Amino acid sequence: MGDETLYPESKPSQPIEDKRQLDTQSCQRMWDELVRESPLNRLRYLDARLAAGAEIDRERVAQLVREAGAKAVLSDPDAVGLVRQLWGERAVERLKDRANTPVERLPE
User: Fold this and answer.
1) In a domain, 7, yes or no
2) How confident is the model at residue 95 (pLDDT cuts 50, 70, 90)?
């Protein structure tokens, strides 16, 4: 073929085990920053943990759903998927009802 010199052999800059550890640390730092920003990000994090097979505290998810609000949760596919996995389609329907119900404000 004669074109071997056009494609130099690539050498990994670090061993695979170190790269995996670096990727894991990088992902953990990213999640550490994101979960501080909003309850919706915390729901996304819990969805990722559930997908990885971890046990999830349902009460904590319920608190975060209330904190984020029904409209915000429904606007995020990851959060809707988390609610659907934990409580089923009925819970998603309840969120839709809650999002369409006007909130009465208490007198100040």
Assistant:
1) no
2) very high
